[in-house]
Amino acid sequence: MYKDLISLADLTGEEILELLDLADRLKKMQREGVKHRYLEGQTLAMIFEKPSLRTRVTFETGIFQLGGQGIMMNMQLGERESAADVARNLERWVDGIMARTFSHQAVVDLGAHASVPVINALTDKLHPCQILADAQALREHRPQFPELKLAFVGDGNNVLASWLNLAARLPLSVTLVCPEGYEPDPEVLAFAQANAQGEVVVTHDVAAGLKDADAVYTDVWASMGQEEEAEARRAVFAPYRVDAALMAKARPDALFMHCLPAHRGEEVTDEVIDGPGSIVFDQAENRLHAQKAVMVKLMG
C-alpha cells in the first residue's frame, strides 16, 4: 500500500487500474446524486505555487463532495520555511496535503517528512493526477484501453513524463513526436523503455510517430516558468501544430487530447480541439473524479 501519490511509477499496474475503477464508481455516484461522504470531517491542505483553474476547483470541489474541507494555501515552499518543516507542521493539523509546485523535490520532501498522505498535483517533472484523469477519459471512449497507441506531439514535458510512467505499468504504447532537443527526461524515458509492455518511442518524424495512433495528445509549447522561451519555441514547434492535416496521419477514428489550458492557434487549431474526436473536456471533468479516487484511497 502506498502512502502518497508522487509518481505513477510508484504504483503497480493493478493499483492504477483500481484507482480508475474507483474513479468510475465515484463519477457514477456523483451523476446519480448518490452521497459519497467517505472523508467526513477531514481536511486537505492545498499548496499552490502556480496559478490554477482545473486543479484548484476539482480538488476543492472533490474534498467537499467527499464530506471534507480544503484549505487554500498560496505559498512558495522553501522561501519562508523548508518543505520539510511545512510538512511537520501540517501533519499535526490536517489529514492530507496536496501540492502544485515548481520544484519536484519540494513534493518529494513533503512526502518524506509528513505522516499524512501527500498528493502531487503538478510539478515541473510530473503530473500524475492529470494522467489518471486522462486515462479514465481514454478508456471511456476506447474500451480496449490500455492496449492502445498514444502519440504525444510536442515538448517532452511533465505531462509526457507521467504518460511514460503509466506506460511502464500498463500495456499502453506511447510515442513522443518532438523537435530535436525537446526529448523527455532521460531517466524517465529509460525507466519506461525498460519496463514497458507496449512500445515507448521518441521520434522527430511526424508521419512515423502518428501512424496507427489511437489518440493524439498535445500540450502548450511553453509551460509555466518557460515564458522567456515562448517566442523561440513557437518557431521550433510550428511544424508540430496539431491541425486537421496532422490528425489525418493517425487512425481515422483517432481521439484528440489536451490537458488544458490550450493556446488555440499555436499547438492546436480550433477545428481539432472543437472537433468531434476531441475529448478535452471529458479529461477536464475527470480531474474531479480521478482526484476524488486518489483522496479516498489515501485518506479514507
Query: What is the alpha-carbon Rg in Å?
Result: 19 Å
Strand arrangement across the biggest beta sheet = 7-6-5-8-9
Q: Which range best describes the helical content: under 10%, 10-25%, 25-40%, 40-55%, 55-70% or over 70%?
A: 40-55%
Q: What does the largest sheet look like?
A: 5 strands, parallel
Shape: globular
Mean pLDDT across the residues is 97
Distance between the termini: 13 Å
**Estimated structural class:** alpha/beta
Total DSSP E strands: 9
Low-pLDDT runs of 5+ residues are none
Explain what you see.
This protein has 300 residues and is an alpha/beta fold. It has twelve helices and nine strands. The protein has a five-stranded parallel sheet with strand order 7-6-5-8-9. The protein has a four-stranded parallel sheet with strand order 2-1-3-4, with helices on both faces. Helix 5 crosses helix 12. The longest helix has 20 residues, at 280-299. The protein is globular, with a radius of gyration of 19 Å. It starts with 12 loop residues before the first helix and ends with a helix. The mean pLDDT is 97.
